Amino acid sequence: MARTPSLETSQDSLALLYHISRELSAALELQIVLQRVLLLSMENVGANSGSIIVLDSQEQPIDSIIVYGERIQDQTTEQLRATLEYGLAGWVLQNHQSVLILDTSQDERWLQRPDDAIDRTGAKSAISVPLLARERQVGVMTLVHPHPNSFATSHLELLQTIADTAGITVLNARLYAESQRQARVMSALAEAAITVTGSLELKDVLQRILDQTSQALGIQTVSLALIDPQTNELVFQAATGLGGQKIIGVRLKIGEGIAGWVAKEGQGVIIPDVQKDERFAPYVDHLTGFTTRVLACAPIRSGDKVIGILEAVNPTSGAFDNDALLMLAGIGSQAGTAIRHAQLFENLQAAHQRYHELFENSVNPILVTDMQGLILEANQQALKAAGYASDTPEGGRYKLIGMNIKNIHKIKAGHTLKKMSSGVTSYESVLYTKQKAQIPIEVYAHPVNIAGGTHLQWILRDISERKRQEQLREDLIQMIYHDLRSPLSNVTSSLDILLNSLPAEKTTDSAFMEGLLQIAQRAIERIQRLTDSLLDVSRLEAGQPIINQVATDVQSLIREAIYSTLPTIQAKGQTLTAHFPDGAPSGLPLVYIDADMILRVLINLIENASKYTPNDQPLSVGTKPDSDPNAWVQVWVKDAGPGIPLEQQDYIFSKYARLSEHRGTVKGIGLGLAFCRLAIEGHGGRIWVESQRSSAKTGSRFVFTLPVAQAGEPQAIIMNEG
Ligand code: ADP
């Protein structure tokens, strides 16, 4: 039977208190403090069991000690909560009052446990007192004697006095424990921060996050999923432990499973029994062959956005403590920043790589210089073009780099590097190669911003081929001019002389001769028109302006075209009608044109109309006012041919373009319309065709515009009118 000591004198209790304070002041660890307070108290009132429950600043139970006879027992936080809710200790705390119970079987504040039954130890006596510090309850101490009526008021008072002394020690120990915990969390987070941000390789960063989480929380597996912005799904990117590799690539919708819930809500959770949680998505376990029992999951944030989740599974200790979520959330937010940086870095590297490839693989030589012209960068093509590629690639690069751009080509007169920094500059020049060759180039220079400073990027396009073509064209023009045109005009004058030398009096022979000579004359005129048009195509393509423009009456010109083409039209039994607006000729303004060139345009169009229209069909030609009648006159040529499909209506004006249906059936080389377009556009006008293939046989209508002559422009005299 336990002895209940009685405290006779106040001296005894003073001595006891002195002893207790000395005992307590030596300890700072919460469990040691609790143990000492409890054992001393039990000893002094003769209790055989007792407990102390410690509360946090919100008066929630956070720690405890239970001594039962000689044994110290463990109690979970849940059990503590139950004691506080229904038991004696709870009553004491709620009422801020000490309690002495002489017979626990008679008091409903005593939470009856199996042990309290008659056949076990039966009724007991109990004392429960709050532990106070700075007028707040920091805990509650309960002592139990195995027999009823074993405690008296003096024991209650003594215990109250001990509690008053012990309260502040318990508080200090609790604060110490809290600061210890905080320090542990902080140092784990600080270490995680240093490690996690210590790399910019995304894969490495993810691995570091996993390692730090495992280390800080002591767990079996950890996995990490990021939100795919395209599909807005969580995609597992990395995992450790058993079955970890199998989870990689698994997708969860936002809101699906515990991970999806965390991503959606943006807050972490600890789930002590996962299999019972209705949010749990078991198929992930089926996939990995792993059983998730306990889980902690926290969002990964970048700024205020959730970009993923971090999941810690099955702590080796069996349960997560209160700090686990704090720690996981802390690592989660550091992870967000580290992942974001790694992603940005990856994007940057990819962009750099792309730029580098574009630069290196460009078909044109590209150089970058500073504003003094010093070459800082050169791509392979530049090395090749400037003749430095035959050295080892790097050797060549180093020779060209460091030279001045002015030493490899001549900057156009009037240009300075400083001026070039204000926009795109382009000009033709010559590239001086290492082998002393001179390559014609077209230079495009434009300012670029590199590392915060203005530089110039130079693209040097080799235009040797174009120059060669230009030379060829020039040679061709010279050839046509000298070798074709001059002999032709000799033939023309000879024919004229022959025609004039025919006797004035017509005989059958002379009429026959005249007919032959006229046929020859027309043939020569056709060849002349062709050579003239060839010359014009070359000149106009080279961008030469039209110089022989005079104010001309367009109707007279049309008549002249009809006169020239009539024999061809009549040979096919076709008719050609001219349509002029009312009041013509005076109704139409004069046009400002190279009359000879436009005459050839008209003849071309009329000959095409005749050529592509079946025999005996009507053709027509005419003028009509433009929508802007003071600036333009419209001229049209209409036929009754097959028409031209819409998608080919622009194409037929290109050089050598012919509709496939006419190749091999109708003679031609595809230059006529190209000449017409160059000639009309050279005059500033437009040319197009209107034709609807679907409504068969409606033919085509070629239309072009000519500029109206303005006052003061020179006027032409038209010959051959009729
Ligand atoms: P060519 O007549 O020597 O082939 P053009 O440049 O004059 O060259 O014409 C280009 C092509 O446009 C012709 O080959 C023909 O297919 C088509 N084309 C031109 N005029 C007509 C027309 N009046 N009707 C139908 N097709 C035409």
Structural features, described:
The protein has 722 residues and is α+β, with helices and mostly antiparallel strands. It folds into five domains: 172 residues, GAF domain (Beta-Lactamase); 151 residues, 2-Layer Sandwich (Beta-Lactamase), CATH 3.30.450.40; 101 residues, PAS domain (Beta-Lactamase, 2-Layer Sandwich), CATH 3.30.450.20; 75 residues; 158 residues, Heat Shock Protein 90, CATH 3.30.565. 42% of the residues lie in helices and 22% in strands. The chain is built from 18 helices and 24 strands. Strands 3-2-1-6-5-4 form a six-stranded antiparallel beta sheet, with helices on both faces. The protein has a six-stranded antiparallel beta sheet with strand order 9-8-7-12-11-10, with helices on both faces. It has a five-stranded antiparallel beta sheet with strand order 14-13-17-16-15. The longest helix is centred in the first third of the chain and has 44 residues. The radius of gyration is 52 Å and the shape is rod-shaped. The protein binds adenosine-5'-diphosphate. Adenosine-5'-diphosphate binds next to helix 17 and helix 18.
